[in-house]
Structure formats: structure tokens, C-alpha cells
Amino acid sequence: MGFWTLLQVASMPVIQVLIVGLLGAFLATEYINVLHADARKYLNKVVFTVFTPSLMFAILAKTVTLEDIISWWFMPVNILLTMLFGGLLGWVVVKVLRPKPHLEGLLIAVCATGHLTVSCLRNYGNLLLIVVPAICKEDGTPFGDHATCGSIGLSYASFSAALGSIYIWTIAYQLVRTSAVKFKALQMAEEASKLPNDDLEATQGTLLLKGDDAQVQQTGVSLHSANDLGEGKTSGCTKVMEVLHQILHELTAPPTLATIFGFLFGATTFLRNLVVGENAPLRVIQDSIALLGDGTIPSITLILGGNLTQGLKSSNIKPWMIVGVICVRYVFLPVIGICVVKAASSLGLLPSDPLFAYVLMLQYSIPPAMNIGTMTQLFDVAQEECSVIYLWTYLFAAVALTLWSTVFLWILS
């Protein structure tokens, strides 16, 4: 595959994201004012509770079987390694650049997570689901027959998307939540320092009942418990119970729960045949869920574009922070990915299919996961900064992905 052809393939989904994001920014301007702050907040709730869970269930129930889960066991390990190395590099960026506390979790999260949560019906806005089948159609690739390569590549990409969703809605979710706790605690401390002690408790209650903070309460965040932890007032047993409760709460978040059910239906032949296929008796349920899932990526992108309008005016993100994220995602992680995949291949941990190794490498070079924007909106923290980061990382994505795809193909040829 030629460089310019690969550049065109890699740039198409990125350009789509940028176009829809600009539309969201235009709709959020004071001249149109359709996608104002409240509209973005309520649309984000729909994305979190309806669109994203539908998307993940539709992908898994249709494309992933029990045999796939068993034979592709290294893929979840690889995605976990991408998040581990990306998170460590993001932590270094935070320590070097010292951003404000509410930005720490965001920077680590965008460094750790790639764009894996996607729409499969229209192949919209997803790099893996567009790039992999497109490369399979080209002559001279090391992936064999075009039709077989495209079918298997789509399954690899879908499985990767589903696994990424689990990690995103647990690990990255926790990072953004922690930043929200710090931000709300600082707000409360500032309010408390301005009032007499008699008014402190009333001030805390007012902050917790604010409309913007209601979402934090819904996701299990308690500022009182955070203060108690800081003062050492809770026992060890209570701390353990709180951690277990938080883990359980994150695992039962709608996107994660839908992913678990998607794996269950995809891996169980009886359940799969109920909803998937032209002769499935409950096919209408799968079709309806897939239709809802189609709204995920456009909605997220519109929200990010709307936040960008305000972000360009008032965000606290510094240029060096953006440079740090770009270097982590497009320079250091791909190099680490090559080393990890080559080492796993030499140890005999991977299937013989070179396309599998290509997808594993590609997971290290894709832009940040867009669902982090949903989380910042959900917790009402760093939405504008998140949008600015996405603007620049996606501007660089097409060229970076093209260069690294060429390198990966050369290594595997």
C-alpha cells in the first residue's frame, strides 16, 4: 500500500470527527445557541445511559464468539499494557508540567486510553474499523486473501473496541472521577474558608446539592467521605468497603454492564441465536439496540465541539501539556508497542496471523478515547480543556497513524 493511499485511508475518519466537531462548535455559539451548556449536559446523560451501552452490546453480540475470546486472549493483555505504559507516561507528564489538580486525571487518562469505543454499523468515526478493512483491500499487504482479511480484521477491531470499553469505563473513569473529587473538595474548602465555622456544614450541603454536582452524587462521589479520608477518621475496614463499593459501582455503570452482557450473548450460542441473524426470533431487539448505538459517536463529537467553543476562550490548558499528550500517544507509545508485540511473538504468545499483530501494534498509535469527553461532562470537570486536547490530537492523528501504519506493515512484511 502506497504512502499517499494509506494517508487518505487514515485521514478519512479523523476528518469526519473534525467536521462533526466543528458543527457542534457552531451550534454552541451565541448566534445559534442550540447546543448550549444545559443541552450538552442532558445529551451527555443520554449518551452515557443509552447510546454507549447500546453500541457496546450491538458490537459484541454480533461479532465476538466464545472461540474468539479464548484464542485472542493476548488482546486484553495488550490493551491493558497500552493503558499501563500510557498511564505511566501521562503521570510523568503531570509531574513535569504540574497542571492544576483537576487536570491531572484528564491528562493521565488521555495518555492511557486510545480511541477504541466505536460504531460498527456505519463504520463512523472509528480508526480501527476503517483502517484495518481498508488495508485488507489493498494489494501487497502481508495479510493474505482480501475477503478473509476484511472479515477477520473487522472481528479483531470490534473485539478490541469492546475490551477497550471495559478498561475505559473502569480505569479512565476512576482517573477522571478522582480529579472531580479534588476539584469539588477545593471548591468546598475555598467556600468554607470565607465563612464562619457555624456556616461550614450548611455550605457543604449547598455545594453537594448544586445542579452541576448532582451527577457526581449519582456516580458515588462523596465529598464528605473524601474529607474524612484526608483526616484519617475512617477505619481500615471502612476504607476497604468504600473501595469495593466504588469498584462495584463502576462495574455496574451502563456501558460496562452492557459490555458484560454483550460478551455473554456473543459467547453463548443459544442467546446469540435469539437476537443475531436473519432468522433470529428476537432480531428486532438487536436491530433496535444497534440503531440506538449509531447515535453514540455523532453525539459525543457534537458535545466535544460544543465544549470547544468555550474551551478556546477559557480553558486553562497550556501548550506544553498538549505537546506532552501528543508525544506520549504518537511517539513513545508506538515504539513501546512494537517492542511488546515483537517480544510476545518471539515467545509464541500470538496467533500466526500477522493481521492480529498489526491490530495489536495499531492499538498503541491511535488518538485518545472520545469517551473521556463523556466522563468530563458527566463529572462537570475540565470539559473545555478536554475538547482543546482532542482538537490538537486529532489534527495530528492522520499523519501519525499513517506513518506508524507504514512502519508496522514494513515490520510484518
UniProtKB/TrEMBL annotation:
InterPro entries: Mem_transp_PIN-like, PILS1/3/4/5/7
Pfam families: Mem_trans (PF03547)
Keywords noted in UniProt: Auxin signaling pathway, Endoplasmic reticulum, Membrane, Transmembrane, Transmembrane helix, Transport
Domain of life of the organism encoding this protein: Eukaryota
Compartments, record wording: Endoplasmic reticulum membrane
Membrane protein topology class: Multi-pass membrane protein
Magnesium listed as a keyword: no
Membrane-spanning segments: 12-34, 46-64, 70-94, 155-176, 320-343, 355-376, 388-412
Cellular component GO terms held in the UniProt record: endoplasmic reticulum membrane
Presence of keyword Protease: no
Principal subcellular localisation of the protein: endoplasmic reticulum
GO biological process per UniProt: auxin-activated signaling pathway; endoplasmic reticulum to cytosol auxin transport
Family listed: Belongs to the auxin efflux carrier (TC 2.A.69.2) family.
Function: Involved in cellular auxin homeostasis by regulating auxin metabolism. Regulates intracellular auxin accumulation at the endoplasmic reticulum and thus auxin availability for nuclear auxin signaling.
Protein name: Auxin efflux carrier family protein
